[in-house]
Amino acid sequence: MAATSSRYFEARRIGVSYDRVTALSEVSIAFDAGGIVALIGANGAGKSTFLRATSGLVALAGGEIWFDGQRLDRIPAAARVAMGIAMVPEGRRVFPLMSVRDNLLMGAHVRRDRGVARDLDVMLDRFPRLRERLRQAAGTLSGGEQEMLVIARALMSRPRLLLLDEPSLGLAPIVVRDIARLIVEIRRDAGTSIVLVEQNSRMALRISQYAYVLETGRIGLEGASQDLLNEERVRELYLGG
Amino acid sequence: MEQVIINGAILSANYALIALGITLIFGIMNVLNFAHGQLFMIGGLVVYWISAVVGLPYGVGVAAATLSVGLIGMAMERGLFARVMAEAGREENAMLLAVGTAFLLENAALYLFGEKQRGIPPMVQGVYRLGAAFLPANRLVVFLISVALVIAVLVFVHFTRTGRAMRALAQDRTATTLMGVDAGRISMLGFGLGAALAGIAGALLISVTGVNAGVGAAISTKAFIMIMIGGAGVIGGALLGALALGFAEAVGYALFPGSVTYLIIFVALIVFLLVRPQGIMGRPWG
Ligand SMILES: Nc1ncnc2c1ncn2[C@@H]1O[C@H](COP(=O)(O)OP(=O)(O)O)[C@@H](O)[C@H]1O
Ligand SMILES: [Mg+2]
Question: Chain A residues with CB inside 8 Å of B157's CB?
Answer without folding.
Answer: none
